[in-house]
Amino acid sequence: MRPEWVERELLDFGVHITNGPMTSDRTLAALVSEASIRRLLEAEKEAMHAPNIAVAASMFSKRYAYLAVSSTLYLMTMYDAVYRFSPEACVFREDRKIELDETLCSFVQSEGDRHEWREQVVRMLFTQCVTPLLDVLKRTSRLPYSILWENVAVRINSLYRSMMRETEEPKMKERVREDYLFLKKASGDLFGAKQNPFQHSLNLDESLLDTSNRKTCCMYYKLEKKSESLDYCLVCPLEKKKGTACS
């Protein structure tokens, strides 16, 4: 049984818990197929008025990172617990939120050695539910890994900066810092990669409070119909973004 607060916290990230089989071709399990991910990207491209599927893939990866990665890491750090889901349990909805089939999910709390538990949480999240998706996005859209992984990293940076600002208790601040540094320094195999894909992009300073620009461009500025009143994303590395609404 999961505590009531789990559903409330996940809803804040756009994650909905449902009960029933997932038959959509938008399940995470289905999206590792190039045919399925291409259909999704074509739909995203049209909905966002993106010029091509590379831009759609970049925006989708940023959104998925917020929904799946940020929500999981938030529970891990703030509650010492996660709502673990499998690729079969997760579906990406047309309203750009995700649903999790509770019959295929489990509420898992930290017990015993937290370091081992945290390592297991990160390994299962990324090797099952993140890296395979980024792999198929790269193959389908030809978008480089450097952009895709930094799209995930900026969500992690934003999450831990926000948690550090909101947390007042010294012990919790230390846990926020420790978990962030763990993600930055962990071995690549925890992410299903040869090297840690975040070693250069998790680049907050020691306080975890300062914002730093990206090294790659997510191509948000190429969207014809933007979801925010900004010409460029807030951490855009492009020189010409200076002097715009988000500078």
Shape: globular
- Secondary structure class reads mainly alpha
Radius of gyration: 18 Å
**Could you give the distance between the termini?**
46 Å
Strand content: 5-15%
Strands in their spatial order, largest beta sheet: 1-4-3
Major pleated sheet: 3 strands, mixed
Count of helical regions: 8
Order of helices and strands: HEHHHEEEEHHHH
Total count of strands: 5
Helix coverage percent: 40-55%
- Low-pLDDT stretches: 242-247
Overall average pLDDT: 91
Overview of this protein structure:
This protein has 247 residues and is mostly helical. Helices cover 49% and strands 9% of the residues. It is built from 8 helices and 5 strands; from the N terminus they run H-E-H-H-H-E-E-E-E-H-H-H-H. The protein has helices at 4-12, 28-31, 34-48, 53-79, 114-129, 131-141, 145-166, 170-185; strands spanning 15-18, 81-85, 90-92, 98-101, 105-109. Helix 3 (34-48) packs across helix 4, helix 4 (53-79) packs parallel to helix 7 and helix 7 (145-166) runs antiparallel to helix 8. It is globular and about 50 Å long. The model is unreliable at 242-247 (pLDDT under 50).
